[in-house]
Amino acid sequence: MSCTALFWSLLLLFCFANGTHLVGANPAVAKQLDTGMPSSWTREGCSMCSCDFVSKTVNCSGIDLHDGLPSASVFPTDMTVFLFQNCSVSVIDPNYFLNFSSLERIHGNDNKLKESFFLPPKIVTLQLRDNYVTNASAFFQRHLYNYSYLNTFDLRGNSIQRIETRGISDIPNLTLLYLDNMRKGLVLDNEAISNLPGLAELYLSNNNMTLASLQGCHNLAKKSRSL
What we know:
The chain is of the alpha/beta class. The chain contains four helices and 13 strands. The chain folds into two domains: 1-36, no CATH class; 48-226, Leucine-rich repeat, LRR (right-handed beta-alpha superhelix), CATH 3.80.10.10. Residues 19-35 have low confidence and may be disordered.
């Protein structure tokens, strides 16, 4: 081996042994070597938002995202929790979350959302309090998923004025359903909320609802409570 080659070999060994990175090295690779995190958790989105590999959580809360969420490709695909509360988000692509197959919790309270987006198949909790969403049933792709993991569906304080027949139905493990404090009141069509055998609590208060509207949920399990 030439003296030059021997010099560079020794230099590389010295740098790695002392945790030093050569100028021009890929920052993502360097971060992965430093932390032991998978490369997906060193993506661009984790320099903008807070990423916790242990809890698989991405937290963008409090960041001004009025132009929209960053591209889904910049976030770890195996995250289980995504938080974007108080970010001024007004629009989300309907398919934004569908490639996050492990995503269980989405918290997007206190934004400016008007349109729904499709929920990922393993979603457990959706919280979108105090937005301007107008359609509750548009979150579900019933021809693809039965949303058997969904436990909490929280849309209180939105702009939903009507839920059509079977708009929220056939979700076997839904336990908590929050539809209270709608900005313009709420009307439920016949059997709008139906076939929810696991439902324990249903919140409908402060919606100026008539007795006729309440017939839209008359066939719920007896153990459920309307508050």
